[in-house]
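Justification of computing resources. Each target in the renewal requires a structure prediction run like the one illustrated here; the chain below, 438 residues long, is used simply to show the kind of job we budget for.
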Amino acid sequence: MHGRTVSREDAVMTEALIQRLEDSGDALAALTAALIRFPTINPPGEAYRPCAEFIGQWLEARGFSVEFIRAHGAPGDSDAYPRVNVIGRREGGLPGETVHFNSHIDVVEAGQGWTVDPFAGLVSDGRVYGRGACDMKGGMAASMIAVEAFLAEHPVFPGAIEISGTVDEESGGFGGVAHLATLGRFSPPNVHHVIIPEPLNKERVCLGHRGVWWAEIETRGEIAHGSMPFLGDCAVRHMGAVIDAFERELFPKLALKRTAMPVVPDGAKASTMNINAIHGGQREDHDGLPSPNVPDSCRMVIDRRFLIEEPFDTVKGEVTAILDRLAWERPKFRYAIRDLMEVQPLMTEANAPVVRAVSDAIGKVLGRDAEHVVSPGTYDQKHIARIGRLHNCVAYGPGILDLAHRPDEWIAIDDMVAGAKVMALALHTLLFGAQPAK
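Resulting structure tokens:
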């Protein structure tokens, strides 16, 4: 990289690094299992502090200076559930750039259908099982072991290495990477290259993601006695008309849109919209029977994923045009719409230094060309690009994306070993490759 040819000395150094990680399976499995045993469930944000402290202690033992940064005032932050992030930094002793490995420590709820304890960190038949094994505590462990091996080979090196464990990625990342980015922790000159070990499969480099628009639509009616609904106006029926229009008009239209972005899986190359939730009428958090009322409010949360080719005003306009037409067609139809989150699609350039470094490492370790992909859903790269203004960032990590958030989630130990080798070689290239040719 950077106009530098690969010397025999380089080849020997990288081969030594690969060999050092050859027998790292036991260490990777143990570290992944230890991370899984912290039930960092989000929401509400459980066990963030003890998990961050465990990571901090691990980093301090390997010569990193460690900071714990709480995102006071972030969504969900409280004394009961503090949004605690950890960042470790190790200076190499020579001038150079900074490579940052960022992993989120939060996981979704376990849910039903497990045949093993989701927070036991079971190691069996070449796999580690548990909530977060794949998404993404296995990836975090791989980055930590990769860095440990690199430091054993190169105790003195150009630049600096950072490792962070951040919170709330599963709920938007506002108490984690977004907060740190506002503090300048993901911007040059503090950081130059970022690798996020999300589980996109060990042969893939993820360049970015589709866009997302979350919104809440409320239809409004008039309360009345349920035995005389003609005296009121049912907000749920109005929402039924909205759903019917979406089914007949919007969903078929979205299915016809296709992107040139290399989104995986193939179904995500089209625009999509998910109805995330519907709440209408009386609350359900009570015992006994409901009272007989006509509902005067119904709320729907939509999750619209859009393509880099779609202007954002068009994305919104397709929804509001349907709502405006229903307001004209249906007597008493009234609605309100509230934006919850907006994230533009993004895609790191294929010739960016971090993309080339990880891709080259995949070729060396796996003996195949790297596949460049785009994620169907967003992840914390959005904040690094949007707030940090750093576009030299990718997601790369072991694990099968389809296993994320599912019962009996697991990660293969062999995949973690391969992923750690790739990350270690990419780190070597980014730090040593940034130096002038000798």
